[in-house]
Amino acid sequence: MCALIAILATIGIVFSVVTETWRFFFDPNITGKPTVTDFLFGTEWNPQAALRADQGEIVTAFGFLPLLVGTLLITFIAMCVAGPLGLLSAIYLAEYASPRVRAIFKPVLETLAGIPTVVLGFFAALTVAPLIRAAGESIGLDVASESALAAGLVMGMMIIPFISSLSDDVINAVPQSLRDGAYALGSTKSETIRRVVLASALPGVVSAFMLAISRGIGETMIVVMAAGLAGNLTFNPLEAVTTITVQIKTILVGDQEFDSAKTLAAFALGFVLFFVTLTLNYIALRIVKAYREQYD
Amino acid sequence: MTDAVIAGPGRAPPRTPMRRLDTSSAEAKARVRRRYRAERRFKAYGLGALGITTTFLLILLADILIRGIPAFWQHALLLDVPVKAETIDPGNKRAEMFAAAEKLRSERSWWISRQLFGPSPADTAPDPLQPLRAADFSGLARQALYDAFPGIEGRQALRKVAGLLSTGAGDELRDRVIADAGLVGTTVRTRVLLSANADLYLKGEGTPIETRPGKATATPSAATGAVTIEASGDAFAAEMARTREIVSKRIAALRAEADRLHKRAGAAAATQVEQMRAEAAEMETRITQASGEETLDERMPSVIVVINGGVVKVQKLTPRSVSGTVLIPLQSTAAAEPDAWQIATYLLPESARRTGDLETAVLERLRGEGRIERNFNWRFFTAGDSREPELAGIRGALVGSALTLLVTLVLCLPIGVMAAIYLEEFASKNRVTDLIEININNLAAVPSIVFGLLGLAVFLNFFNLPRSAPLVGGLVLALLVLPTIIIASRAALKAVPPSIKEAALGVGASHQQAVFHHVLPLAMPGIMTGTIIGMAHALGETAPLLMIGMVAFIVDIPGSLTSAATVLPVQVFLWSDLPEPAFKMRTAAAIIVLLVFLFLMNGLAIYLRKQFERRW
Amino acid sequence: MDARVNFDVEFQEQPAVAAAPKIVARDVNVYYGDKHALKGVNVDIPERSVTAFIGPSGCGKSTFLRCINRMNDTIPICRVTGKITIAGEDIYDRSLDVVQLRARVGMVFQKPNPFPKSIFENIAYGPRIHGLARNNAELEEIVVSSLQRAGLFEEVKDRLNDSGTGLSGGQQQRLCIARAIAVAPEIILMDEPCSALDPIATARVEDLIDELRGDYTIVIVTHNMQQAARVSQRTAFFHLGELVEEGVTEAIFSTPSDRRTQDYITGRFG
């Protein structure tokens, strides 16, 4: 019955985030809480004031939009890096590479996949961000020291091996007979890959991208270390943005009372995170399953 | 389509004139060339993507290595420190103290019996040597350093020199005295730890230095205090030129600022603008005069003259003479022959450095005397966290990681393997097992921070387990890697050919016996591989542990599963946030240690996989 | 040797004029790594006719077929020696472009392998990559005429935008034939095209082959001797990597000159 532990874990997660989220929105004892609409569509995020009621001037705000936009912006940048690089790497490894080349590059991708995100975060904050800032300054651009771009680029690095290994699987699942069919019509190798192999593997590739996006949305350490804290509602990759995970971490690290709206807000964010990633994963896994059945 | 011709049995196929592929025309050849170009391009894209990824990885690793490797070495000073009895043992009770300590040591119980029967009174008794330990050994070391530079006086200067030593400067001396009471009252040659800033300077992170011999006879006017050095020729022309270059840049900046102010404020700032312009003009006339004098301020490179066994910091400069203050006293005011004295320029201005001119001069002198030693930084592995970078180590984090992983392994391995066996060998295909399967797959992809929320809400608030404890960290990580282990174990079980189970069943084993006696042992390498990879994943995990409070600043090495602890990646996170460059260096060093552990674990997993694969 | 077998089929009439050899193979050897898969094959295949390759499994007939459009190039460990010419041109010549060759030599596989695209796109794929159509109207015309030639047009004309994988097995195979025709090849190679089809679908494909031989040189590999007898004018019998016997189909089946051919077609092994 050990398998039930997995179920218990899920129930535990759902239970903890849902009850706290419920309290965040509806518990009458919690002061300063927003309504659901305020939370979902508010454009300002400022949970600090909720901690100390006497700091009257600061307006408490639990608008979720800046976090969502920040999260999506960074994930988008990451996907712009990791999508093409990961997919092209996978194609090259699966279709072109000789065993020797594969023996060189596979470990590279595996190593990259094994690097803890805290290390990548350190790299992003100390090396990539200053580089981007310097590069921006040299062409006259004003870049925030904690720009979304730095976090996004390094997150992209993190996702590359993820996309490439998933894409590798789906590309290898494309039956050889389809490649033969294309070759027999006089296709070159790249025509075969682009027009037949990728077209066939498309659902699998799409689901790999979805899993990667969910990975990016849920990633914490890189953004904690390299992205900012201020909830700017912006689409400019050179500015500092904040993300859902950063805010959860910021609110919950250190001492906290369990009944303040601020703490509960973190659980509400966790709920959103859990819900979004779970949905993405569920859809992606369904697509992959259907895709595999098509060729089995 | 109105064409009703149907090609079918018995009918004539539509006889259109046959098209044939055109392969010979110029147009066709160009098309083929284009297609092959596209082919090559596409292939290059793929290779390029791999190249970029590899470059990323190499830059990352190189960056970490370059930053972190220097932290594995540390500089210390070799000093002859007189261990004055009146300073460290004013009551003169050390004989009794050592005797008491010896007695206590013999009464201490073994570790095992301590764990089993609890500590004996001797284990919890206060250390009789405590007064001796608490004595000011660092003060002794500091005094020894002062004594080495008798000419440096004044509180400010002495404080600067003292700043070269770590707060842990007396540690080695203390350990040696505690181990050997006979050293009290003698002079001990001992290693004295330098402060992080001094260490950084000696590692070359301070400032670029340009040193050249003086090319004329130079005569200092005094041995201490303010001093003027007259040279017989244009010995300081190069320094003069560099200074004038800086001044002319300042003139340009001042003029630009004046213009800007004039444009923006107009008449309102007229006097100020006028003043700035006059200042610029004045500076300009000064630097165009051949024999003009320049003053070096703190935003300019420091010019240092090393002459007659002393060091002078230059404040005013002409091509033939300099005047300034003595940092380290000169032995005489005799004229120095050409090439017998040096001019050094510290290119980074003093205000931008962490070691000032005096400290740098002292360090250079000590280095010249061969009293600086570079040792492997064992403390990094044997000490806990500290506010002082030179004293900080990762032992606490390593022990914390080990304890946490232990909890994770103890929980995960049996539960994961049992769950896998159940799902693979015993579970019937129904809605419940389906649900469990989907659940496990989805759980594997839940963001790790959400597991941290679970730990916070359930383990800390609901079950009231202690914060920051390896126990809770292990529980959370166990849930995190459980799906990985279940999935890997199932794959390993699936890979065992059914014939083995059938053979066992055929000789009369029960289903359970067949699985546990025959299938499981054969699947074990695969399960171990999966477990190691899962553990490596857990070792690198940070975010959920932040949620359950494993981010506190903890100096002590954690001693139990419930004591406050931190883990290696969290230590990395904590240090990376600190502003001191020495901590950045240690962060990178801690990352190197973390990566070494991860590579070892993954290497072991790969080795196991290679060793046991293709057995059937 | 009078064990005549009655195949109960109508043999194909001989071409009135003996066609010029389209494909000429001289001393073709194929090695898969260390394995010598095809040993010194010499054969002339005439233009605008159907030639069948028969023989037991693993005898090298498919291997030889794949040499004709150099599909063996895609297998890294495979090595081909000897000479094969198509219309006098050496296809293993260095200057020859394999992509162009495969456009001239179409191929239909054992298992129908339509691309997971619409029916229209399946057919349009070849003409597109080879630039056979200057505009959409031409492309459409090629698609329609190819489908008509493959006898599939009436069945699918209302659902050209549906996925090709949604068709029945027989329809998929005719789609693959139409796909091959769309590139306007000179030769069509068929590797057991009916082995995955039911008898009715098989009959339709066989009829189709018969119709196509007026325009194309067709080489068909088959396990099914009745099929070889029904559709081909000439037959080549392969055994253990060797070409044992080749000749007019009727002659091979009625008066085989080699003992092994006799044994195979009378069902002693195979």
Plain-language structure description:
The complex is a heterotrimer of chains A (296), B (616) and C (270). Chain A has helices at 3-26, 36-41, 65-96, 99-114, 117-138, 148-173, 176-184, 189-218, 221-226, 244-252, 261-295, and strands at 45-46, 61-62. Chain A is built from eleven helices and two strands, in the order ααββααααααααα. Chain A is mostly helical. Chain A is 73% helix and 1% strand. Chain A has a single domain, classed as MetI-like fold, CATH 1.10.3720. In chain A, α3 packs across α6 (148-173) and α8 (189-218) runs antiparallel to α11. Chain B is 57% helix and 11% strand. The radius of gyration of chain B is 37 Å and the shape is flat. Chain B has helices at 26-68, 85-88, 94-107, 111-117, 121-124, 130-133, 137-148, 155-162, 171-179, 196-205, 237-265, 270-288, 357-368, 379-382, 395-426, 431-443, 448-462, 470-495, 498-506, 511-540, 543-547, 568-576, 581-612, and strands spanning 73-82, 187-193, 209-213, 218-220, 226-231, 294-295, 302-307, 310-317, 321-328, 342-346, 372-376. Chain B folds into three domains: 74-204, no CATH class; 211-353, no CATH class; 390-612, MetI-like fold (Orthogonal Bundle), CATH 1.10.3720. With 270 residues, chain C is α/β, with parallel strands linked by helices. Chain C has one domain (21-265): Rossmann fold (3-Layer(aba) Sandwich), CATH 3.40.50. Chain C is built from ten helices and ten strands. Chain C has helices at 61-68, 98-104, 119-130, 136-149, 153-156, 169-182, 199-212, 225-231, 249-254, 259-265, and strands at 21-32, 35-46, 50-54, 78-86, 89-90, 105-108, 187-191, 217-221, 234-239, 242-248. Chain C has a six-stranded mixed beta sheet with strand order 6-7-8-3-9-10, with helices on both faces. In chain C, strands 2-1-4-5 form a four-stranded antiparallel beta sheet, with helices on one face. In chain C, a hairpin with a 2-residue loop joins β1 and β2 (35-46). In chain C, α3 (119-130) packs across α4 and α6 runs parallel beside α7. Chain C is globular, with a radius of gyration of 19 Å. Classes of the chains: A mainly alpha (296), B alpha+beta (616), C alpha/beta (270). Chains B and C meet through α1 of B and α2, α4 and α7 of C.
Annotate the secondary structure layout:
The complex is a heterotrimer of chains A (296), B (616) and C (270).
Chain A: H1 3-26, H2 36-41, E1 45-46, E2 61-62, H3 65-96, H4 99-114, H5 117-138, H6 148-173, H7 176-184, H8 189-218, H9 221-226, H10 244-252, H11 261-295
Antiparallel strand pairs in A: 1-2
Chain B: H1 26-68, E1 73-82, H2 85-88, H3 94-107, H4 111-117, H5 121-124, H6 130-133, H7 137-148, H8 155-162, H9 171-179, E2 187-193, H10 196-205, E3 209-213, E4 218-220, E5 226-231, H11 237-265, H12 270-288, E6 294-295, E7 302-307, E8 310-317, E9 321-328, E10 342-346, H13 357-368, E11 372-376, H14 379-382, H15 395-426, H16 431-443, H17 448-462, H18 470-495, H19 498-506, H20 511-540, H21 543-547, H22 568-576, H23 581-612
Antiparallel strand pairs in B: 1-2, 1-11, 3-10, 4-5, 5-9, 6-8, 7-8, 7-10, 8-9
Helix pairs in contact in B: 1-23, 11-12, 15-18, 15-20, 15-22, 17-18, 18-20, 19-20, 20-23, 22-23
Chain C: E1 21-32, E2 35-46, E3 50-54, H1 61-68, E4 78-86, E5 89-90, H2 98-104, E6 105-108, H3 119-130, H4 136-149, H5 153-156, H6 169-182, E7 187-191, H7 199-212, E8 217-221, H8 225-231, E9 234-239, E10 242-248, H9 249-254, H10 259-265
Parallel strand pairs in C: 3-8, 3-9, 6-7, 7-8
Antiparallel strand pairs in C: 1-2, 1-4, 4-5, 9-10
Helix pairs in contact in C: 3-4, 3-6, 4-6, 6-7
